[in-house]
Amino acid sequence: SVSSILYGSSFLAGEVGGSVTHQCFYSVTPANKHSRKYWCKVARSGICFTIISTTGYTSEDHEGRVSLEDVPQKGTFMVTMTELKKSDTGTYRCGIGPANTGLYVRLNLTVSEPIELVRGELRGSVMVLCPPGDSKGIKKRFWCKLGTTGCTIIANTDGYVRKDYHGRISITPQESSGAFKILINDLKKEDSGLYECGTGRLSSRDNARVVALQVTTASTIPKRPKFLSGTVGGSLSVKCHYDPKGNYEKKYLCRWKEASCSLLLDADGFVQEPYKGRIQIASSDQENGTYTVVLSHLREEDAGWYWCGAKIGNTEHTSSVKLLIQKEIYSSQDSETSTVVKPTLRSPAARSTPKQRSTTGLTHATATVPGSTSAPLPTTASPSAFVTSPSAFVTSPSAFVTSPSAFLSQKSNLILMVHLFSSSGEPRLLPVVLTALILLIFITITLLILIKIKLQKKAGAERSTVGHLEAAAIRAPLSPGKEQTREETPSPEKVCDRGTDSGNCRWVFSGTGTANVISLGRIIKINFKQG
């Protein structure tokens, strides 16, 4: 029988992707030398499932990443586990005997996640290299942010991208090692925090790597325009910036979509087939660290996000810009007399800070449209022209009542204004337009209510006048001093038959004029002449 002398450490610790070695010692006896040595993991059920043993068995889940070496002469055997996963954490046994319930030493293995610190500048970019994961099959890759309730997905290779990261994050698989990289640009202060990148399901997070992203608020990178506007058939240029001190091996422009960026062209002469003949690097200034990309013959489908990029070794810097394509607007339906109207935008570059040196970034952009006779509309740079004078809509309330066509005309003009704002490619104008529209609707409703109140007051005044007329008719005859007034402004007199009980009465009018009489609840208008 085996000896009862067996000992070893009771605690092991390792990092994800790393390795650990555990050594068990036993007394040197013939029985111990020739008995089976094993390494097993205790399940929740209490059963210890063999991972490896000296009989030649190795579990499928640990194939290629566990080994056992027995040295009988020294009375010891060593177990080494490599490529550690977080799921390797648990309770193990190293023992001697034909079964896993005989002589053994119990120990706990803890696999922690190494934290990689990545620093980036405000408005700059970072690159994170993530472990390859399981090379036997293609698994979903993800990037998530750790919080109190778990890890919230930011982006994955299924094409999901959280809204606040649209256009500024990509997940790119490496060509050889199987590892993949995360590229993030236009960094914001709120991007700082703990993240995980890994493969497989988020619940298991196989081979996940913990990354601490720190965004420094003190930045040398200037603010850059995030939107460019072009017209169908026109062209635009994008100037990209990189550090002239760096010997970048690759400079490129790619098109971003669903967490990936497809290469359009690079400085080595590559051009993606659908873009040949209408995209090129027009100029490159190595001394100042810039290159300019020109995209011509613009199409509606060219709208979207684009990235400038520069790469050197394992370092890659990127910046993003969104292209907005406008359609031509015609001022008339007559093709012979119509005038092409091209909405004008104030370039976002006009609002950028003075030019400063940045690692990589969009610093300048221009756009042109095909030549044609044009009558420009007022620029969208002054939306206040439409909203600074609300009184223009209220100075003549009757216009909404006596001239509906005028109101409809103003409504049509407003619709055109909204169309121009919405198609101008300047998203910050949209709240102004919506505010103006809501203000106009509110003013219109208020005017209608006021007009209704006014009409009701007028009707009440008429009823009050008639009531006073009836009261005047039953009063005593006018005094002599007022006879002249009675003749000039005739009023009816009520005369009843005297000496009778019939109660018959009649109205006697003198002079010439018009009078309103209430009879049985109705107002009767009477015209009378002298006599």
TrEMBL record:
<dbReference type="InterPro" id="IPR013783">
    <property type="entry name" value="Ig-like_fold"/>
</dbReference>
<dbReference type="InterPro" id="IPR050671">
    <property type="entry name" value="CD300_family_receptors"/>
</dbReference>
<feature type="compositionally biased region" description="Polar residues">
    <location>
        <begin position="353"/>
        <end position="376"/>
    </location>
</feature>
<dbReference type="InterPro" id="IPR003599">
    <property type="entry name" value="Ig_sub"/>
</dbReference>
<feature type="domain" description="Immunoglobulin">
    <location>
        <begin position="115"/>
        <end position="216"/>
    </location>
</feature>
<protein>
    <submittedName>
        <fullName>PIGR protein</fullName>
    </submittedName>
</protein>
<feature type="compositionally biased region" description="Basic and acidic residues">
    <location>
        <begin position="483"/>
        <end position="498"/>
    </location>
</feature>
<dbReference type="GO" id="GO:0004888">
    <property type="term" value="F:transmembrane signaling receptor activity"/>
</dbReference>
<feature type="region of interest" description="Disordered">
    <location>
        <begin position="477"/>
        <end position="498"/>
    </location>
</feature>
<dbReference type="GO" id="GO:0005886">
    <property type="term" value="C:plasma membrane"/>
</dbReference>
<feature type="region of interest" description="Disordered">
    <location>
        <begin position="337"/>
        <end position="376"/>
    </location>
</feature>
<dbReference type="Pfam" id="PF07686">
    <property type="entry name" value="V-set"/>
</dbReference>
<dbReference type="InterPro" id="IPR036179">
    <property type="entry name" value="Ig-like_dom_sf"/>
</dbReference>
<feature type="transmembrane region" description="Helical">
    <location>
        <begin position="429"/>
        <end position="451"/>
    </location>
</feature>
<dbReference type="InterPro" id="IPR013106">
    <property type="entry name" value="Ig_V-set"/>
</dbReference>
<keyword id="KW-0812">Transmembrane</keyword>
<feature type="domain" description="Immunoglobulin">
    <location>
        <begin position="225"/>
        <end position="326"/>
    </location>
</feature>
<keyword id="KW-1133">Transmembrane helix</keyword>
<feature type="domain" description="Immunoglobulin">
    <location>
        <begin position="9"/>
        <end position="112"/>
    </location>
</feature>
<keyword id="KW-0472">Membrane</keyword>
